[in-house]
Known about the structure:
There is one protein chain. The chain is α/β, with parallel strands linked by helices and 174 residues long. The protein has one domain: P-loop containing nucleotide triphosphate hydrolases (Rossmann fold, 3-Layer(aba) Sandwich), CATH 3.40.50.300. It is 36% helix and 29% strand. It has helices spanning 16-23, 70-76, 93-108, 128-135, 151-173; strands at 2-9, 26-29, 34-35, 42-43, 46-53, 56-62, 80-88, 113-118, 142-145. The chain has a seven-stranded mixed β-sheet, sandwiched between helices. The two termini are 26 Å apart.
Amino acid sequence: MKLMNVIVTGPPSSGKSMFIKTLSEHVFHTPEQIAVGKSGHAYTIEFGRMSVRPGFFLYLAGLPGDESFQFVWERLVDGLLGFVVIFDAKSRAHMDETKSLIKRLKNLTDTPFVVVLNRLENRQAPEASELKKDLGISREEQVVCCDVQDKSSAKQALNALLNIGIKQLKKVSA
Length: 174
């Protein structure tokens, strides 16, 4: 049996929990909410598991983007497939939090990530190049539009991360 891990993170109320619930066959929650950080927000850590194919499972760890959880990320980056950073398109306040989070992730590891733009609904997606510039990410890094409540959409976002991981493995083995 093979296991791969993905960390799902982002600002509070960005859609992390729903992304995990939408994709997972089983979801496990921490028994209590954890209040940490300067903001005093209450956080729940979640774990989901999905079958990719028989004998191959993907574990999704839902971790808050709050800087107070840096110690958890540091313990999980070894052998990590990548990060999914959820960004709420409706919340302008999430822009600064997401930008700071991406900067911390890049300082921590070179593990691949995708930014998932959630809650677009009837709004037009911002120009990818402008959004990447605002978030401080390179042209090669991906921003994916996603409705985290829709299984097909969430799978497409996760596949974007898997494709990046596959490309990096091919470069390493070449």
